[in-house]
Each structure stands twice: as C-alpha cells, then as structure tokens.
TrEMBL record:
Transmembrane segments: none
GO molecular-function term, one example from the UniProt record: molybdenum ion binding
Domain MOSC, chain residue ranges per copy: 18-168
Gene3D superfamilies: PK beta-barrel domain-like
Protein species of origin: Streptomyces agglomeratus
SUPFAM superfamilies from the UniProt entry: PK beta-barrel domain-like (SSF50800)
Protein name listed in UniProt: Molybdenum cofactor biosysynthesis protein
C-alpha cells in the first residue's frame, strides 16, 4: 500500500492552522523541525496542563486529502494545513491503519502511527459546524474521528509534496487506532 504527500505544513507558533511549506524536516524522536508541537514530551496545551511529563505521541499530524473533498461536498472549504496537520497525503486510508504502522515518507523519513487525532472545539471556531463533520457516529453508535492520525518520528528526513509514502503494517494481531 502506498500514497503520496500532497502538502507539508508547520508553524513555530501556537495557531490552529499551519502554513504550507516547500519542505519540512522530521527529527527522530522529536517531530517537525521548528514546529511548536515538536518535542519528546507533550506540547499540545491541553495535554501539558494535564501532565507535561507525558511522552509526545503527537509529534506529526497527518490528514488524508480525501477528507477535504468529503468536506467540500458538505459545504466546507478546507485546504491543506488549515486543520493543523503537518503532512497531507492522498491514496492511503490513514484512518484504517492499525497502531504501530510505519509510514516511510520520502527518501529517508519514517513515522510510526500512534493513534487518532481527537478534534477539539477550535475546529468550530475555524468554520462553524465543522466539528460535526469530522467527529460523528457510525451505524452502531460508535464515535468516528476523521481529523487525521498522529505519529512519532522514528527516522528523520526531509519531506516534500510529491514524495511517496509507503505503508508497512505491524505484525498481527493489529490494534485499531484510538485517540491520543
């Protein structure tokens, strides 16, 4: 299974959106060089308030570009980086990957999938009603989170739009993604 990087984004300041870049550099064990969420321990404000010593399982945020097409059909215009992701992909069912999946991105970088992004109310501040589009329930009443996945950097490297993403699944049994 493989896909493509369609955009890369980072921001050195706390902001809901992240500007697109020509490239980003992933740093092993830290995240995106110069990004406010890079670090060994948690950097998201809500998690820092709970326990600043917890490991950062949210070093790199990935979203599938297919989500933007789905949102457009519902009347929402969202571009890469606007939901705070670092890497936008196409051609990969990110939400269907199991925990521990390795994504080989570009020539060198490898990230390990840690879980699902749990969207917050800031999404509605960005566009009213958007939160209901990215968090819902399936036919069985289970919560479905569509706002991307989180990962940690195993091997650093530069990532650019157009880079290939190769998926390596972990050994079975697979553990489904949960929020991190």
């Amino acid at each position: 299974m493989s896909g493509t990087v369609t955009a890369v984004s980072s921001n050195g300041e706390y902001s809901f959106t992240k500007p697109n870049r020509d490239s980003i550099t992933l740093l092993a064990g830290l995240g995106v060089e110069g990004d406010v969420h890079a670090g060994i321990t948690v950097k998201h404000r809500s998690r820092v308030a709970q326990d600043p010593t917890r490991p950062n399982l949210r070093q790199v945020h990935l979203i599938h570009a297919e989500l933007f097409a789905e949102l457009l059909r519902e009347g929402f215009t969202v571009e890469p980086g606007q939901l705070g992701e670092n890497i936008t992909t196409s051609g990969i069912d990110l939400l269907g990957l199991p925990e521990g999946t390795l994504l080989h991105v570009g020539e060198q970088a490898v990230v390990e999938v840690t879980g699902l992004r749990n969207p917050c109310l800031q999404i509605d501040a960005f566009q009213d009603g958007l939160l209901k589009q990215v968090v819902g329930r399936d036919e069985a009443g289970n919560i479905v989170r569509k706002a991307g996945i989180m990962s940690i950097v195993r091997t650093g490297g530069e990532v650019r739009p157009g880079d290939q993403v190769r998926v390596v699944l972990p050994a079975e049994p697979h553990r489904p993604l949960e929020q991190v």
